[in-house]
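Give me the fold.
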Amino acid sequence: MPPDQLAASLGHVHLAILTDHDTLAGSAAFAKVIDSELPPPDGVELSLRWDGGTFHLLVYGYSLARTELAARIDALAIARRNRNLELLDRANQHGLAITEEEVLAAAGTTDFEAKSVGRPHFARVLVDHGYAESIQDAFDRYLAKGRPLYSPKTLFGFDEIGPLCADLGLVPVVAHPLSLGLPLASLVTTLVGFRRLGLVGLECLYAGYTPDQRAELTQIAQDAGLLVTGGSDYHGTFKPGLEPLMGFGDLVVPAEVGDRLLESLNRP
């Protein structure tokens, strides 16, 4: 969904922040249209490596495009383009007749570097061609780790991004923390280690979690001295059933959560 269209669809809100994957390209258009009581900072979602595999990090800040973080994101865009071209080549080697133009059209762009184009867009084209029955089926057959088209991403580690965020006054937040796949005791230990490197928050109020999980994560964040944040993880048609702000219909992120997030940011 185009960022201005997404912003317009939200109606009047206290605060909403766009956190697209590995790109800041939609931030200005989103901020220009959003009808919110508080002007949103920029946001981005990054995939990072760690000892347990990979995890997603949300980063919030003002004027992110003018920071060193933006230069790191630009480097990721080049690596992502090369990965996408490799994925396209592998698809054709496996007899899956898809084209670059089709993948770009699925992503709503004309350039592999202009927007965060990735595996979900390849999945959509595979479904359109009848090579898979659904987005999930396309991942299970072709795109997931260990499957024929999989190619690993170029990733930064939190030991690189955390201290950079701290130097720049940005707020890094672990997204959907249960996806780290850790028992809660180990999750606490990992978060404490990340906090020493600059971690500020934890996305406790997440659309895919039960009320008990949200409450448990909120307590963990408070005990660890981390901000509590929330998010819908809305991905348009690529994650059916999710709605902006409301998640699966039961997500409530209180206004004070956004207030505390903004209070933690260095203002321009």
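Residues 193 and 199 are 9 Å apart (CA to CA).
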